[in-house]
């Protein structure tokens, strides 16, 4: 059924614009912010979450100053897919140990791109583990740097301990078309997963 | 002329405390707010209300994500969520959560994925 031009059924009126989100993860310096910048329609922005060690139901900010405080920043961009659908791209903070503090950061995401620098594979191990733990569908994007060595994909799959179903694509995160192609690969992967899910029902 | 001000609190905590009336997290409908949730004003801004509330209503005439609002207003997510909870409770804004790839009980949303794909291919 085609709902174009109409409000989504069951949703209140007022323009009908909706959003989807994709997360961009990967180790420090793998090109997350670069990819957000190259593919976004808007100048990338930064949003922050201030986190304290205080428990979530503590109802007073007063006195928080002497508790440990951490600011986690997300760089993000936006792509207008059509008049009524926005894609938001969020570059995740490099320090994966803070992810769990940002409640529901990955919840509701279509999926994720995990950027990998083949010169420093290990820097993205933690991001991959987190995606698997959170059950977020993802594709691996090998960000090709000028001095990157061309490793066979199988070797990389082995080294990253990836399942045969996880797509691996090469990209240049500085290039809009190349980053767009990684997003396309992610959506194809999600569709394939859907097909599998439907068949095994 | 306003009285001379004390140097501002570098951590911003004092400002946040004043903005939120000391509340550190939203309750009710706003507790599910996501960075990609779109906020849309349902009423025009009224002068005399808290400046930040007015500012949110003014900026969200067209749907704007919580992340964009936070960046424009210079407020961290948890503080903004408290302010949005006030407006949601008063029925002055509407919040639309991002559409997940899998809709509970309805399976994978293939139509959505197709829509995203054709949007990307037009880039």
UniProtKB/TrEMBL annotation, chain A:
Q: Note the InterPro entries from the entry.
A: Gliding_Motility_GTPase, Gpn, P-loop_NTPase
What is one Pfam family matched by this protein? Answer: ATP_bind_1
Q: Which UniProt keywords apply?
A: GTP-binding, Hydrolase, Nucleotide-binding
What domain of life is recorded for the organism? Answer: Bacteria
* Keyword hit for GTP-binding: yes
GO MF, one example: GTP binding
Which SUPFAM superfamilies does this one have? P-loop containing nucleoside triphosphate hydrolases
Which CDD domains does this chain map to?
Answer: Ras_like_GTPase
Is Nucleotide-binding among this UniProt entry's keywords? yes
Q: Where is the signal peptide?
A: none
Q: Which family does it belong to?
A: Belongs to the GPN-loop GTPase family.
Question: By what name is this protein known?
Answer: ATP/GTP-binding protein
Q: Which organism is it from?
A: Streptomyces doudnae
From TrEMBL, chain B:
Q: Name one Pfam family in it.
A: DUF742
Q: What is this protein called?
A: DUF742 domain-containing protein
* InterPro entries in UniProt: DUF742
| Source organism (scientific name) | Streptomyces doudnae
